[in-house]
């Protein structure tokens, strides 16, 4: 679905409040969520959040946009673990993930030629160690408020963000 007409309408309505940078990019991310939630409202189901543990530790996500969702199945996997899981799925489940998804560099896709500003294989283990040892750094502290707005994160490691659950969170 082309978001540009909706994004243009939001920019025309909010004008200078958005600015040229992060505000306009966040509006685009929130429009994506609006469309996904409309689909869920129409056809049922729950929205899955696709944020991973590395992005959550860094605060690399937009509140009420890509951080939204009822359930976060990837929230306790680091970015490199997500890539490894995707490779396993491709090899063992008949390559259901389109090749262009796996071949392009990670990106929030909020402006042309944008790529994520992190070297995930280097930073993910460092962040994982901080989380595992219950330590903090400025990136973790700055983004704590965002993690409180997340859906339930499926826990697969020793230390996950969120509280975890022992009961079903939905019945479809």
List the helices and strands and how they pair.
Blueprint lengths: L3 H11 L7 H22 L9 H6 L12 E2 L6 H14 L6 H5 L16 H13 L5 H5 L1 H4 L4 E2 L19
Parallel strand pairs: 1-2
Distance between the termini: 27 Å
Helix content: 40-55%
- What percentage of amino acids are in beta strands? under 5%
Q: What's the Cα radius of gyration?
A: 17 Å
- Average per-residue pLDDT, rounded, comes to 85
Number of domains: 2
Could you tell me the CATH topology label of the largest domain: Rossmann fold
Helical/strand content category? mainly alpha
- How many helices? The count is 8
> Could you give the order of strands across the largest sheet?
1-2
Q: What string, H for helix and E for strand, traces the elements in order? A: HHHEHHHHHE
Q: What general outline do the C-alpha atoms trace?
A: globular
Task: Tell me the CATH architecture of the largest domain.
Answer: 3-Layer(aba) Sandwich
Tell me about this structure.
The chain is mainly α. It has 2 domains: 1-45; 47-171, Rossmann fold (3-Layer(aba) Sandwich), CATH 3.40.50.620. The protein contains 8 helices and 2 strands. A two-stranded parallel ribbon has the order 1-2. α1 (4-14) crosses α2 (22-43). It starts with a helix and ends in a 19-residue tail after the last strand.
């Amino acid at each position: 679905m082309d978001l540009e007409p909706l994004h243009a309408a939001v920019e025309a309505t909010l004008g200078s409040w958005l600015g040229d940078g992060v505000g306009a990019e966040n509006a685009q991310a929130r429009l994506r969520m609006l469309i996904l939630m409309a689909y869920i409202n129409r056809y049922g189901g729950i929205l899955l959040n696709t944020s991973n543990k590395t992005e959550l530790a860094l605060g690399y996500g937009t509140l009420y946009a890509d951080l939204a969702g009822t359930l976060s199945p990837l929230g306790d996997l680091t970015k490199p673990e997500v890539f490894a899981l995707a490779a396993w799925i491709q090899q063992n489940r008949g390559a259901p993930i389109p090749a262009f998804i796996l071949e392009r560099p990670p990106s929030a896709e909020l402006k042309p030629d944008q790529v994520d500003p992190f070297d995930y294989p280097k930073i993910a283990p460092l962040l994982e160690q901080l989380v595992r040892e219950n330590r903090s750094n400025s990136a973790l502290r700055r983004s704590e408020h965002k993690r409180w707005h997340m859906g339930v994160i499926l826990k697969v490691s020793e230390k996950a963000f969120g509280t975890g659950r022992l009961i079903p969170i939905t019945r479809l």
